[in-house]
Amino acid sequence: MIKQTKHAKISATLPLSLLVKVDNLVKKSEYPNRSALIEIALIQMLRAQMDAKIEAEAAKLNTQAEIAEAEEGMQDYSDIVGQGGTF
Fold it and tell me: Which positions make up the signal peptide (predicted)?
């Protein structure tokens, strides 16, 4: 679920083929509107990037203390993004 926050109106240029796919998803009621679909997609992309960075750093860990610290950081991360993974 998307938290209610202030939003800014922007303009974006997309390939027509992509816009057709977006509109088809909205028509199928999978998303309420274009803005919601784009917002959700951006949140998922940003979360995936954050997860990849965390995983890359975790792969470098080699001591139990570092692993414990990373797990604590993951808890902080969960507190920030919430259980649903949204900002």
Answer: none
Domain ranges (residues) in the chain: 16-81
The string of pLDDT tens digits covering residues 11-64 is 999 999 999 999 999 999 999 999 999 999 999 999 999 999 988 888 877 677
Kindly state the tokens that stand for 50.
Answer: 């954050």
Query: What's the residue count for the chain?
Result: 87
Q: Whose structure tokens read 């679920």? A: 1
Q: Give the CA diameter of the chain.
A: 51
Print the SS3 string covering the chain: CCCCCCCCCCCCCCCHHHHHHHHHHHHCCCCCCHHHHHHHHHHHHHHHHHHHHHHHHHHCCCCHHHHHHHHHHHHHHHHHHCCCCCC
